[in-house]
Amino acid sequence: MSTSSPEPVTRRDILTLAWKSLLALSGVIGLGWLWRFLSYQPNPAPTTLFDLGPASGLPTDKIITVPDAEAVLLPTEQGLKAFSLVCPHLGCELEAKEDGFVCPCHGSEFELDGRLRKGPADSSMTPLNLEISDQGHYILDSGSAQ
Ligand code: FES
């Protein structure tokens, strides 16, 4: 019967164990980052549909601005029409005045019905889709600008 004593743990053994542990840990962290990278989901596009509430609740004889949609509802003989408040020239936000809309960037002006009055813009305000849903609500699509 032989009695063998365990081999003594050397400094080299401890350093090897520490080194391998560090490698394993960095591998786990690296895999975690790789998993995050591969499973990245970009934010969904913001909604362009705005429920403006019951159609019977909106006045049809006043200009109604919808700031969240950067849009305005204008009264016409056919009812409300929606237009984008984004200037067709270079995209600044139009300001509503008593007699129309003015672009603060380069001075384009638009009539109260959205028609171009003065450039440098070369087109009228952009019309947007405005529909009445099955529930009787006005639904504005601010992404419908062409
Ligand atoms: Fe409106 Fe230029 S951005 S006139």
**Number of helical segments?**
1
H and E string: HEEEEEEEEEE
What fraction strand?
25-35%
Radius of gyration: 32 Å
Measured as a percent range, the helix fraction is 10-25%
> Which class do the helix and strand fractions yield?
alpha+beta
Main β-sheet: number of strands, strand sense, barrel status?
Answer: 6 strands, antiparallel
DSSP summary, beta strand count: 10
User: Outline, from the CA principal axes?
Assistant: elongated
Distance between the termini: 94 Å
State the low-pLDDT regions, or none: none
The molecules bound to the chains, other than polymers, are: FE2/S2 (inorganic) cluster
Order of the strands making up the biggest sheet: 1-10-9-4-3-2
What is the assembly state of the chains in this entry?
A: single chain
Mean pLDDT: 86
Question: Would you write up a description of this structure?
Answer:
There is one protein chain. The chain has 146 residues and is an alpha+beta fold. The protein is 19% helix and 29% strand. It has 1 helix and 10 strands; from the N terminus they run H-E-E-E-E-E-E-E-E-E-E. The strands form 2 sheets. The protein has a 6-stranded antiparallel β-sheet with strand order 1-10-9-4-3-2, with no helix packed on it. The chain has a 4-stranded antiparallel β-sheet with strand order 5-6-7-8, with no helix packed on it. A hairpin with a 2-residue loop joins strand 3 (71-76) and strand 4. The longest helix has 28 residues, at 11-38. The N and C termini lie far apart (94 Å). The model has no long low-confidence stretch (mean pLDDT 86). The site of FE2/S2 (inorganic) cluster has 11 residues, from loops. FE2/S2 (inorganic) cluster (FES) binds at residues 87, 89-92, 103, 105-106, 108, 120-121.
